[in-house]
Amino acid sequence: MRNKSTNMPEINIYIVIIGITSLVLLYYNLYIGSVFFVIFLYSVFHNWRVTNIRRKEWTKYIQDLSLNIDETTKKAIINLPIPLCILEFDGRISWYNNKFYNMVGEEDLLDTNIEDTIKNISLRKVLNENKEMYTDVEYGDRQYTVVYNVIKKDQEEHAKYLMILYWIDKTDYLKLEKAYNEEKNVMALIQIDGYDEVLKSADEDKRPLINVEVEKILTSLETSTEGALRRTSKDKFFLVMNRRELKKLEAGKFAILDTIRHIDYGNNLPVTISMGIGIDGDTVNENIKLASGALDLALGRGGDQAVIRTKDKFTFYGGKSKAVEKKTKVKSRLIGHALREVILESSHVYIMGHKYPDMDAMGAAVGIYDICKSCNKPANIVLNSANESIEMFAKRLKECDYYKNIFVSHDEAIDNCGKNTLVVVVDTHRPNFTECEKLLDISEKVVVIDHHRRGVEFINDTVLLFHEIYVSSTCEMVTELVQYMEGDVKINKLTAEGLLAGISLDTKNFAFKTGVRTFEAASYLRKVGADTIEVKKLFNSDVKDFITKAEIIQSTKIINNRICLAYSETELENINVVIAQAADELLNVKDVEASFVLGHKNDKVFISARSLGQINVHVLMEKLGGGGHIDIAGAQLKDVSLKQAYEMVHDIIEEYLEEED
């Protein structure tokens, strides 16, 4: 900064003017010119003297000010209210203030390496000069944010770099934040699964005892969580608690699910509950909405589980029980009536299953095709190519005049699909699993018919949703729609065989997930012409498949004497079918409760999982992006080698066994 008093250009101008005037006067009048010239010389001398004095005074003022600033800076740094230290670039401490000394609590710190004193700090990230970086460090029982600042110190021979570390103690802030988060309200919606069916399964005099026991257990939950519980209807409860108590429930894997399940007053069906929990919403109302969505998901996955939902993720606990079969067929009648109305209001119908369709998807699709035909509406099944699991059935459909031009490609369906086109999705509810996902975006009328346990991804904005996870197969659901739809729906013999084949496939020849309604549906299909011998032919395998299955069984590893893990290195076109059959076979091994078989084709690895019911394979496969049911599930992995996929499945099984222990 320059002082204006030491540099006054207007004075210099006046002096110059006097000098010029004196010279002019000397030319015309020597006496007067001499007087002015003397004045000019005096002005020059006086200006020089005053300027010099003022410059010395200003220099002294700046020097004194610099000394004061240096002294103030030193005192400020020494008395800085946060710990501070200066390091050489090799990590040696060259200076520190009192706060840092008090923080570390050691007497001699100079020339010691900071990484020897504070073990969990690393200086490798600090490479660029004049750049601040931040890191979190825990020292003692305190949490610090360390601010790194690299400075350059010029010396005569070369530049020297130093690091200044500011230690900002954020322990109290973190404790406050933790306390705040732990005190946040958590909304939980609780529902007793199949309440009416469970009560009916017990003697009439024992039913009040079941009700009282459930309420007693839930009241103890209210007490233990210091929450507030209210019963909103005969089978629904509302619980408010804080997040700290929710963490305790999570740590105990929601043991209340097991406690409720042990209620036994002669009831043939187990008592189970589903819990939907909403957290981290911006408002109480948003938490309630999250809890409601979580409860819907828990029920859609079969109940007997707790689902915690935030804005961006779900967490699942429980899910050990099979869904209870509902005896009533009222819903099938209602859905059948609604489906007929939707079909009649549509210009065209496109039906599709999941990618790499099996007989359950294809049989259900053909069943819907016959329903559309009975309604005199044009319909097609969207399929680019038939894999080996449905190849024989697809060939028989193409050879029959009744199903003329039944199949259309993806491109043809996309070109002809409009807003008023009805799209019926069978045997899946995940948009990215469908045969042609783009159709879901084009059409404004989508119907979903599925029996798989609900995953996080779900087709939204459907005009009709028929999702029953207790049903054996989608073919069983479609068969009931055919039976109870208004008006006479006549299905072709080949359609009946396709539906029966789908039921046979998903029930493993009526051994798994088979209820009374499953046999009733099969009986109806047999009555309308389904030939069981023809159905069996649809599942015939060639010699290569038998050899591959033998190789799979030979590669089997038994984990914990309970779970079989096997793989096939042979690449077959229908490898997904072969590994599914092998997984079924491995359940015949004594003491084995679940089996996992892997196979690969092109750039995909297929995983087939089976269980006798004690182990929920759906939950395990869900961790790999798959899903299914508690006893039948699967997954597909892309851009992963067979060896990598094998290790992933092995790790998931080990993790499951550790959690169970």
From TrEMBL:
Swiss-Prot/TrEMBL cofactor(s): Mn(2+)
One GO term describing the cellular component: plasma membrane
Enzyme class: hydrolase
UniProt binding sites for Mn(2+) 1: 354, 358, 427
Matches recorded under SUPFAM superfamilies: DHH phosphoesterases
Bilayer topology term: Multi-pass membrane protein
Annotated Mn(2+) 2 binding sites: 360, 427, 451, 506
Signal peptide extent: none
EC number(s) given by UniProt: 3.1.4.-
GO MF assignments: cyclic-di-AMP phosphodiesterase activity; hydrolase activity; metal ion binding; nucleic acid binding
Keyword Lipid metabolism: no
Homology family: Belongs to the GdpP/PdeA phosphodiesterase family.
Protein name, UniProt field: Cyclic-di-AMP phosphodiesterase
Organism of this sequence: Asaccharospora irregularis DSM 2635
Classification of source organism: Bacteria, Bacillati, Bacillota, Clostridia, Peptostreptococcales
